[in-house]
Structure formats: C-alpha cells, structure tokens
Design brief:
Strands 1, 2, 7, 8, 10, 11, 14 and 18 form an 8-stranded mixed beta sheet that branches. A two-stranded antiparallel ribbon has the order 3-4. A two-stranded antiparallel sheet has the order 5-6. It is globular and about 60 Å long. α5 links the parallel β10 and β11. The protein is an alpha/beta fold. The longest helix has 14 residues. It folds into 2 domains: 195 residues, D-Maltodextrin-Binding Protein, domain 2, CATH 3.40.190; 181 residues, 3-Layer(aba) Sandwich (D-Maltodextrin-Binding Protein, domain 2). Helices cover 19% and strands 18% of the residues. It contains 9 helices and 18 strands.
C-alpha cells in the first residue's frame, strides 16, 4: 500500500527541487514543503549537514521520483533558535524542532502518521551520532534499528593558539579526561598544564556526541554522570561549535567531532559573522561544502594519550585535501554515525520504502546513500570516513548495528 500511494503521489505531483549555487540553505529548501510520500528525517547536529547534502544530491538526480529525500536541521539554520516549531510534512502538525540525536530518535518513536495518508509517517528516519543505548527499543518488532552510515571520532577541544591559546596541556589521557568530567581534577596544573581552574563543558542533553563522550569516558558501556563543575550552559550549548562566547577562555574544554572539525576547517565557507547566524550565515563558493559553515571558532582539537585524532598532525593550514580522521586514533573514541529507522521484517531490518535510500550496496535494492559515488564523495567532504571496520569489524554502510 505504501508503494502504491507513493507512485500515485509521484504521478500527481512533482516537487520542485532547489539546487543551491550561492548561500547555503538547510532544512527543506525555501518554498518546498515535503509531501506525505517524501522521506523526511530529523535529529543529529553532527551529521545534519551531510544529510542536507544527501537530500540535495538525491533530489537533483531523481527530480521525478515518487519519494524525495529531506532533512530538518537540529536548530533553525537562519537564527540558531532552539526548539522552534516545524511541520515536517505538508499535512503534519507542527512540533518543536528535535535538537540532537536523542530528540530525533524520540520524535521518530512517536510514530505520528500523516493526516493526509495514514500509511505515511510525519518522520521517516532520524540521524544519530550515538549508538543504541539500553533505554532504546531493540531492533525487533515495534522497535527501532540503527543503520550504519559512516565513521567518525570524538576528541577534546580547547582554545587554539590563533585565538589566544589554552592553559591545558597538548594531550590528556582517558583517566585524566574522566576525572576532569567527574570534577575530581579541577585545575590544569594537575594534568601538566598551567595553574588555572578548568572550565569543562558539554553539549546539550539530547546530543549524541555528549552521550558518546560520557560513555567513552565510562569505558564504552555505561556513561559517567558528569560532576557539578561541568556546564552545558543551561542545556543550550550545541555540538561541534566553537563560536559560543563561553568557550573563548584559556580554561575551556569541550568534546568535538573530528569529522565536523575537518569539514569546518578544510571544506566549509567562513562564517559571515561571529555568531554564524543570519541569512546567509556563510556563502559557499567553488568546491566548498554547500551546507554548514566553519563554526570551529576559537577551538582546536587535541590528542588523547598521545594519540592523534586526525592526519596529518598537527593540523595543517587550509586547504588540505588529504586531511582525514586517523584510523589509528584511540579506539574508545572512534564511533559510527547512524540512520535510525523503524524495524521491518526484511533481511536488513529496513522498511522496504526506505531501502532505496539506506540499504547496503550489496542488497537487492541497493540504497543510494551507500551505493552512489556522489553520496560517498559527500561523506568524505563532510569529514567522515566510509565504513572500513575500524570501529566495528566488518561494519558496512546500510547494515544494522547489533
């Protein structure tokens, strides 16, 4: 029934596909409201711009498809507003914009159907930068499945030399990082830095990067509970952004996606203003990424236990076509990023109507994201690595994580 309704919708109406050649647009492009038959996602800050790029490239290549691909960003792309109201599809009720992986997964789990066609959902998938947790429904009947997309890593960031430098040392061990976020170590001198108080920060509570970071500090299974000295600035600090004024301090420490750092520094356009908001927040030119701006601000990424998070190291000045995540970086801090879908009784656990987008290259219905050379180039341009097993042995794009 779902396929028939999509084919009919495609025959009756073709959506106009906007192709950005100037200022980057995020969310569904201006003037386009996704139809019931379209495939729409929400969720992760970390992979939101990659999902925006997937949307543009897929829709450009398949303008008359019965289902087009769209993604809503974690925050308002023009204003930076958190939790503003969005209607994910034309007939769906407005909801608070899901800010981050866990919020996106919760919105998916709500299973809200489109009033114009109860066989369609208002949200079809969620982007996630964290793996399944014990509180998530299993990949089984009435549950959700985490479908592997690409490789990333997370390290700690501090104020870079160009912005005034930091009182932190060049490298911290796992044990030191854990004690900093437990507030057992509160002065940089205790870990080889200057005699100055540590200001530890985390992204907002729904952030997949926050969950991953605290889990990594806890040994990889159970996340630690951060101490009272750790701040998320009233649950407003966003992932992978060094533009917030609270981070412009020699005492600050903040977890950061290595992929996002690489994308921002080497592939994104510079922000038009210090807050990196407004329209346009940046204006991509040439080969720069169409989506996202260089939001690394005052922050630079650092070593863990002497392990280098990216190559070459230390990070070179732009441009750097060879810059990438170091596959030998500390394994506890390597991760997979995911597309989260409702479970279906199929060989790959992906609902049939989503297989043309997200199924593995080897599947009978190869998914565009995993099989298209354009999509694989997008993954690289946004700093991520094609799945090669350095996080999960044998992990492949489009396969469920167990």
């Amino acid at each position: 029934m779902r396929l028939i309704s999509k084919l009919l919708a495609g025959c009756m109406t073709l959506a106009l596909v906007a192709v950005s050649t100037g200022p980057a647009l995020a969310d569904p492009p201006s003037g386009i409201t996704p139809r019931a038959s379209d495939v729409v996602g929400v969720g992760s800050d970390t992979i939101q711009y990659l999902l925006d790029q997937f949307s543009q490239d897929y829709n450009k290549a398949h303008p008359g498809a019965p289902s087009l691909l769209y993604s809503w960003d974690a925050t308002n792309p023009a204003t930076g507003e958190i939790g503003d109201q969005i209607a994910t599809k034309a007939s769906c009720e407005a909801i608070a914009r899901p800010d981050g992986s866990s919020a996106g997964i919760s919105a998916l789990e709500a299973n809200t159907t489109d009033p114009s066609d109860p066989s369609d959902y208002c949200i079809d998938y969620a982007g996630s930068s964290r793996a399944p947790s014990a509180s998530d429904p299993p990949c089984a009947a009435d549950g959700i499945c985490f479908i592997q997309l690409a490789d990333d890593a997370v390290t700690w960031a501090s104020r870079d030399v160009a912005s005034g430098g930091t009182d932190a040392p060049a490298s911290l061990t796992l044990a030191q990082l854990k004690d900093i976020y437990l507030c057992k170590i509160t002065n940089w001198v205790k870990v080889g830095g200057e005699n100055a108080p540590i200001e530890a920060f985390l992204p907002q509570a729904s952030s997949g990067t926050r969950t991953f970071w605290l889990t990594a500090l806890g040994g990889g299974v159970t996340p630690i509970t951060p101490g009272a000295c750790v701040s998320d600035v009233g649950n407003t600090l966003q992932d992978n952004q060094g533009i917030n004024p609270v981070l412009d301090s020699p005492e600050a420490i903040f977890p950061y996606s290595v992929a996002d750092y690489i994308a921002q520094v080497y592939h994104d356009a510079p922000c038009a203003n210090t807050s990196c908001t407004g329209s346009p927040a940046c204006t991509p030119t040439g080969s720069e990424n169409r989506f996202g701006c260089d939001q690394h601000g005052v922050l630079g990424i650092n070593e863990i236990g002497g392990g280098r998070p990216m190559l070459p190291w230390p990070p070179s000045n732009p441009p750097c076509k060879q810059c990438k995540i170091n596959p030998q970086f500390k394994s506890q801090f390597q991760r997979t990023v995911f597309i989260v879908v409702r479970y279906a009784s199929t060989p790959d656990d992906i609902p049939p109507y989503l297989e043309p987008f997200f199924a593995a290259k080897s599947a009978s219905t190869a998914g565009w994201v995993c099989s298209s050379s354009t999509a694989q180039k997008d993954i690289k341009n946004y700093g991520f690595q094609a799945l090669n097993g350095f996080v999960n042995a044998g992990g492949k794009c489009g396969t469920p994580y167990h």
